[in-house]
C-alpha cells in the first residue's frame, strides 16, 4: 500500500471514530507501528490531526469560542484555580494569558491580594473591579473575539517590555515529548514570549489537555516550573511527567 493510501485510511478512521491507536492502525494497514508513527507525524505537521499518547485524534477545524469553553469542565477548572492560589504572593508581577481556566484562577484570588497583572485576556478585565489592590496592565494588539484575547506582533512587543515573577499559562495541549503546543500561531507566539520574559512558568491543564499535541509549538516541558491539573498529584496518569524537573500539583 502506498503512503498516500495509508494517509487516506488513517484520516477516514479518524473521521468515523475521532480517535485511533498506533497498534490498531498497524494491524489494519498491515505495517509496523514505527511506520504508523511516521505517518501520524507527517499528518500532524500538516495540521490534519492532533497527536495523543499512543495515537492520534481528530483535530477540530476551529477552536471553540470563549463563551462555549467557559461552560465546559467548570468543576475541573475550579480545582486547578484553587491549586494555583498558594503560588500567588503580594508584590508579584504576573503574566496571565487567555483562556477560561486562567479566568477561573483570577476569579478565585483573595480580594485583598496586592499584585501587578500583565494580560492579553480581555475576559478577566471585568473581574478585576472587585480587586482594589491589583494593578492591571492590558496588552495591546489584534483583538480575537472568539478567544477574547489580543495577539500578534504588537502583543509580543508589549510583553517584551516586562519582567514577570510568574506566567500563569492556559494550555491547549501538554505532552511529555511534544511539550506545550497551541492551536493558533498568534496565541502560541504570545505564550512563547511570556515564557521567555517570566522567571517561572506554571502550566494549567485539565485532564483532557494531557498527552495531546497541536500544530504550533510553545515550549518544551523543561521550560515549565510547575504543571497544575485537576488530577490528584499522585495519580498514575501523571507518571510520564515525574522524571522531569517539574513540580506536579
Automatic annotation (TrEMBL):
SMART domains: DeoRC (SM01134), HTH_DEOR (SM00420)
GO molecular function, one term: DNA-binding transcription factor activity
All residue ranges annotated as the HTH deoR-type domain in the record: 3-58
UniProt cross-references to InterPro entries, sorted A to Z: Carb_Metab_HTH_regulators, DeoR-like_C, DeoR_HTH, NagB/RpiA_transferase-like, Tscrpt_reg_HTH_DeoR_CS, WH-like_DNA-bd_sf, WH_DNA-bd_sf
Coiled-coil features, chain-numbered ranges: none
Keywords for the protein's UniProt record, in alphabetical order: DNA-binding, Transcription, Transcription regulation
Protein name per its UniProtKB record: DeoR/GlpR transcriptional regulator
